[in-house]
Amino acid sequence: MPLLQRQIIAALLLCCIAFTARGETLRLVTDAWAPYVYEVDGQATGLDYDISREVLRRLGIDLELQFLPWKRCLLALEQGHADGILDIFHLPEREAQMLFVEEPLSEVEFVLFYARNRPYPYRRLEDLRDLVIGISPGYWYNDETFRTSALFSREEAPTHEANLGKLVRHRVDLVVNDRRAGLYLSRQMGMQQQVDYNRKAVGRDPMYLALRRDPALQQLASDFTRELRRFKREPAYARLQQRYANPRQLKP
């Protein structure tokens, strides 16, 4: 192997291990989505935040988290202002810019929320004909049949809170959101008696930690996967799952 080629390979290897060797801070961005990741009294918390912080602690890395609107999260990673995004769906078109940790943090269950005084039962796609469904911009809904159906119309809202507000004011007929996230948000907004959800899910999808596609972060992605899998086998992980099991009991 030529000397120059060996030097390039050695430089890349040093770059890959430098991040963890120096015990740096990992700068992540995310959009608040309780109970997975959110703020209480100015402090980050949530199931996936707690999991990620513990895994990174074991790797000797501090976690710095910034909350941004979802589209700004994607832009921050693209422009190199963040090392990664906490809680993102793994899409093939994102792989060019993102390095996805192999092991998922959580799995979301998308359901349709309705106003209790105007319920719309959902058992099959045909039940949604001619309805208006509130969605969140930039969010991915895994079920292709639901995502591409022309039976109903979709209306974006700037925030998840705005979506629920439109629901109780009958400006949309249904709102699609993760079951746990919607339950937490309805309690936070004092709407738990006004909204409920259809028990039939419209889709499920795992959420991941995605890092900036950079050779310096390649080793970290592998290490994070290994430690996350190990953590999932421990009682501490089960206790975390239990703590966030009922979103309506969490502190808003």
Automatic annotation (TrEMBL):
<dbReference type="InterPro" id="IPR001638">
    <property type="entry name" value="Solute-binding_3/MltF_N"/>
</dbReference>
<protein>
    <submittedName>
        <fullName>Transporter substrate-binding domain-containing protein</fullName>
    </submittedName>
</protein>
<keyword id="KW-0732">Signal</keyword>
<dbReference type="Pfam" id="PF00497">
    <property type="entry name" value="SBP_bac_3"/>
</dbReference>
<comment type="similarity">
    <text>Belongs to the bacterial solute-binding protein 3 family.</text>
</comment>
<feature type="domain" description="Solute-binding protein family 3/N-terminal">
    <location>
        <begin position="25"/>
        <end position="248"/>
    </location>
</feature>
